[in-house]
Amino acid sequence: MIARPLLAAPFIKSGIEALRDPGSRAEQVAPTVKPLADRYTWLPNDPELLVRIQGAVNVGAGVLLALGRLQRLSALALALNTLPHALAPGAEDRAPDRSERLTELAKAGALLMIATEPIRRKSALRPKARVQALEARHALDAQTRKLERRARRMAARAARTQLRMAAKAGRAKGAAAARTRPLRARISR
Predict the structure, then answer these.
(1) What one-character DSSP code corresponds to residue 118?
(2) What is the pLDDT of residue 152?
(3) Cβ atoms 59, 9 nearer than 8 A
(4) By C-alpha distance, which of 2, 1, 55 is closest to 24?
(5) How far apart are CA 187 and CA 117, in angstroms?
(6) What is the pTM of this model?
């Protein structure tokens, strides 16, 4: 949940910087853009315009990624925007450049993971939840039936015990009454 906004933040920042001041980046990109623009006619010749386009793509796709909207499309756009910078030939092999390239490649890898993650459809989750609910219901039903049987057995046992006790009490009462009758009969004579 927090990973996408954290991944999108540097792209949004660099895109805003590119839109505000495209001049310095245009100078860096110009040697690469000129041969490409000559080869591909649909590509603009103006390096400053390309830097602005790249900045707009970074801001737009970064915001969409951070908000969780059109995640795959925005992640793919940012990855495609990152790869040329990370894989650009001609840079010197100094340690800061290498670590910067590795960072760019790591960002591109993370973006490609987002772009290619499996689609989670809500309809695919519903049957699973329904099955889990049914299983839970059946387990509760079985448990309820077991408890009902146990309660019936306990109630029957308690009723039998009460009947035995009542019978004992009745026999004891009858025996006591039988013992007292002759006494009463003797006294009354």
Answers:
(1) P
(2) 92
(3) no
(4) 55
(5) 104
(6) 0.53
